[in-house]
Design goal:
Layout: E1 3-6, E2 9-13, E3 19-21, E4 24-26, E5 28-31, E6 34-38, E7 47-51, E8 54-60, E9 63-70, E10 77-81, E11 84-88, E12 95-102, E13 106-112, E14 118-122, E15 125-130, E16 147-149, E17 153-161, E18 168-170, E19 194-201
Antiparallel strand pairs: 1-2, 3-4, 5-6, 7-19, 8-13, 9-12, 9-19, 10-11, 11-18, 12-17, 13-14, 14-15, 15-16
Length: 206
């Protein structure tokens, strides 16, 4: 259990319900001009969800978060030509990682499945779509997936990149690599999409 000190004198233990002035919750406590307490919804830098595939739903409190999202790989295909087997790879999924401020407590829904696009919704609005790689066709590899972001208070973008295009070759086409920062999401090595959500801090500004 954390505690609040004025100088070296402990004056308050802080439990998970925070600090109150009467019945009013305190977001910050100052001793003179020195901040001695800052409310946090989670422990800063704590990981809320991280997996591939990832289907997560919950309530997102006010605060700054880092989110990573990747679409799944597109389907591959094979055919025969002049007596030889040929194949084409689907494209890899698009990927984005960014830091944003969530201004109100609201529902969050993450859908990053074994196939298809990956999406994140806040409230009733889809705010991020990481598209899956395109499906391969005869003589053509699938295109890499793209990313769309809208309706977020973005503080910084760590990475936003289109997926790799799939290749075409006799016998076995080359594997298509992931563009994800995490776990080879959306690639030949791991075709499923994925997501990671991290809590940074409560206040928008440091």
């Amino acid at each position: 259990m954390p505690s609040i000190y004025f100088g070296n004198k402990k004056v308050k233990d802080v439990n998970t319900n925070g600090v109150y002035f009467g019945s009013t919750p305190c977001k910050q406590v100052y001793y003179g001009s020195q901040k001695v307490y800052q409310f946090e919804s989670y422990i800063p830098s704590s990981q809320i969800t991280y997996s591939s595939p990832n289907n997560y739903s919950g309530v997102l409190p006010i605060g700054v978060y880092k989110i990573a999202l990747c679409g799944a790989k597109g389907n591959s295909t094979t055919w025969a030509y002049s007596g030889y087997p040929w194949g084409a790879q689907g494209g890899s999924g698009g990927f984005v990682e960014l830091t944003f401020y969530n201004p109100k407590t609201q529902n969050i829904q993450i859908n990053a499945g074994s196939s298809g696009n990956a999406t994140i919704s806040l409230g009733n609005n889809t705010v991020i779509t990481a598209r899956c790689g395109g499906n391969a066709g005869i003589n053509s590899g699938g295109a890499g997936g793209t990313v769309t972001v809208s309706g977020l208070d973005i503080l910084s973008v760590q990475r936003q990149v289109q997926g790799n295009n799939g290749g075409v070759a006799a016998y076995n086409p080359p594997n298509v690599a992931s563009v994800s920062t995490y776990g080879d999401w959306g690639s030949s090595a791991n075709p499923a999409g994925g997501a990671r959500l991290e809590y940074i801090r409560h206040e928008r500004e440091v």
